[in-house]
Amino acid sequence: MLLRMFEWMQASAFTTAVQNSWWAGAAFNVLHLLTLAVFAGALLLVDLRLLGTGLREQSVARVAADARPWLIGGLVGLAITGAPQLVSLAVRNYYNFYFWFKMAVLAVALIYTFTIRQRVVTADESRSDSLQAKLVGGLSIVLWSVVTATARMIGLS
Amino acid sequence: MIRSLFLWIDSLESSIALRESDYGYAILLTIHVVTIIMFAGLILMMDLRLLGWGHRSSRVSQVQSRLFPWQMFAMGANGLTGLALVYAQPLRYYPKIFFWLKMALMALAGLNALVFHFTTYKSVAQWDTAPVPPPGARRAGFIGLVLWAGVLVFGRLTAYNWIDTWWPWPI
């Protein structure tokens, strides 16, 4: 069922157009990397603050509020530039272990970022320097680093 | 001279060993990508503050000084893995135009940061809390943004072979 969907994507006119273009595949990939930098910068700024370093003069909630438009904008950019790569390389992705590994960690990282991490960054300021805050910030960096690393491994395998 | 250096590195046993190792190159490349994203992300956040486009509630000097150690940490890890990648496959990188464009943009980005630090940044006390910094700071932020984006673009184009980027003469 899933394989049929990936084969359908592979056979689409969009995939043919991307594969017949000398620049489209490269452009989607490069734009994906640029939007990842936007997302990662906004994420790291808050995670470093949760770890008790970085912009220490500001509250966690303030740093997170300032970073949020770039975090959401980066994520939307990642989805927009990632989808064409998923479609145009569908069958290759389907048989790639790292693709599925990335998708699994990505799902965990997204849920984590917008539930547990979100609760901590908007929590009472007296708890922002707690061990819990440091663990949440550290785990966020680890999760998103794994997503980035496995994404690169897709291209290597 | 540079060509001779790259050819010499290519012939070294340690270069060959790294090149032929099963996982060495892939691990280095993966760390290189993760650290460039961390570095570029933090540089971008700083440039957004210089442009007055983001993080306006933080002082410019705080953004500069607090993020600097982490930027240097990411850049150090990124530089070391980058050197190791070139060391492992010097003849893969030497003939690629995009590789040299990436190096040139990195040098320009470093120069831009130095010029800003020794000129406009000297008067930071006067505009530290300003939501929109003066034109000199905005200019440095914008140039930094464009140059580092270029480094990411040419870095990615170097790693993949989507577009023929060889010099018109053979190595």
Helix-strand layout with pairing:
The complex is a heterodimer of chains A (157) and B (171).
Chain A: H1 2-10, H2 13-20, H3 24-50, H4 60-88, H5 90-94, H6 97-121, H7 131-156
Helix pairs in contact in A: 3-4, 3-7, 6-7
Chain B: H1 2-11, H2 13-20, H3 24-51, H4 60-88, H5 90-93, H6 97-118, H7 124-127, H8 135-159
Helix pairs in contact in B: 3-4, 3-8, 6-8
What this model shows, in words?
The complex is a heterodimer of chains A (157) and B (171). By secondary structure, chain A is mainly alpha-helical. In chain A, 82% of the residues lie in helices and 0% in strands. The longest helix of chain A is centred in the middle third of the chain and has 29 residues, at 60-88. The two termini of chain A are 24 Å apart. In chain A, 37% of the residues are buried. Chain B is mainly α and 171 residues long. Chain B has one domain. The radius of gyration of chain B is 19 Å and the shape is elongated. The mean pLDDT of chain B is 94.
Task: Explain briefly what this protein structure is.
The complex is a heterodimer of chains A (157) and B (171). With 157 residues, chain A is mainly alpha-helical.
Sketch the topology of chain B as an H/E string, one letter per element. HHHHHHHH
Low-confidence stretches of chain B: none
Which outline of chain A best applies? elongated
Radius of gyration of chain A, taken over Cα atoms and rounded to an integer in Å: 18 Å
Give a short account of the largest sheet of chain A. none
Taken together, the total number of domains of chain A comes to: 1
Distance between the termini of chain A: 24 Å
Q: In percent, how much strand structure appears in the residues of chain B?
A: under 5%
What is the mean pLDDT of chain B? 94
Structural class of chain A: mainly alpha
Described by the principal axes of the CA atoms, the overall outline of chain B is elongated
Straight-line distance between termini of chain B: 12 Å
Biggest β-sheet of chain B: count, sense, barrel?
none
Mean pLDDT value of chain A: 94
DSSP E strands of chain B, number: 0
Rounded radius of gyration of chain B (Å)? 19 Å
